[in-house]
Specification:
single chain, about 220 residues, alpha/beta, Rossmann fold, Arc Repressor Mutant, subunit A, 5-stranded parallel sheet, 8 helices, 11 strands, about 40% helix
Length: about 220
């Protein structure tokens, strides 16, 4: 999942950036309201983590602009403003959740996963497609009942495909969902990681629609 973190406090921002990446998320970090608004106009994210007190434009201004464009990307406000009135205002302005600072990283990641479940219409905490089961909380995968050990980037590619199982994702779409701004991407990165996934799952688990992209196949039960 690719997140946009909007936080001007350097200590909080760097800690969240590192912590979220260690949990398997791809994170782009911006530090002022105007940059956040410009970024959200041109880049699609799974979730936006938004501080309110920002230089340039406030987080609520950024949120109002996002919603006025019809963009329904889930937004979690992260703010030191913890009065009930502040939370009500944030939620009524279009936020999907409101988490007062300070907070625990584990709670934040659980809220992100909960938003994704609701957005995807899932009730289970597990993501399933055919014989593949992915547990986002534990970053664990099983295939045909057996645990599969995947590297972090392989997990990210599999998670991107499992977000919309059966949908064909182009090379550029996969890159957008898996890589952040601060990552150097080799020319054969997508093909390399898809090949690794096929070796660890099966050759038929991920298919290629020539000239279009990759998708999770509907494999028969063993």
């Amino acid at each position: 999942m690719r997140l946009c973190l909007v936080e001007d406090d350097l200590a909080i921002g760097s800690s969240l950036h590192a912590g979220l990446r260690s949990c398997g998320f791809t994170v782009d970090w911006v530090q002022d309201g105007e940059t956040a608004e410009d970024t959200l106009r041109v880049t699609d994210y799974t979730t936006v983590l938004l501080d309110i007190g920002l230089p340039g434009k406030s987080g609520l201004d950024v949120l109002n602009a996002l919603r006025s464009r019809g963009n329904d990307t889930p937004v979690i406000i992260l703010s030191a403003r913890d009065r009930v009135a502040d939370r009500i205002n944030g939620l009524d302005s279009g936020a999907d959740d409101y988490l007062p600072k300070p907070f625990d990283l584990d709670e934040l990641t659980a809220r992100i996963r909960a938003l994704r479940r609701r957005r995807g219409g899932r009730t289970s905490t597990l993501m399933r497609h055919g014989q593949i089961v992915f547990d986002p909380a534990r970053q664990a995968v099983s295939y045909r009942g057996a645990t599969v050990s995947l590297r972090s980037r392989e997990l990210a590619f599999l998670a991107a495909l499992m977000e919309e199982p059966g949908k064909v994702l182009s090379r550029s779409q996969l890159i957008d969902r898996v890589y952040g701004w601060d990552t150097d991407i080799e020319s054969n990165a997508v093909e390399f990681h898809i090949h690794a996934l096929r070796q660890k799952l099966s050759a038929g688990a991920i298919r290629n629609m020539r000239g279009v992209g990759y998708f999770l196949a509907d494999e028969p039960a063993a």
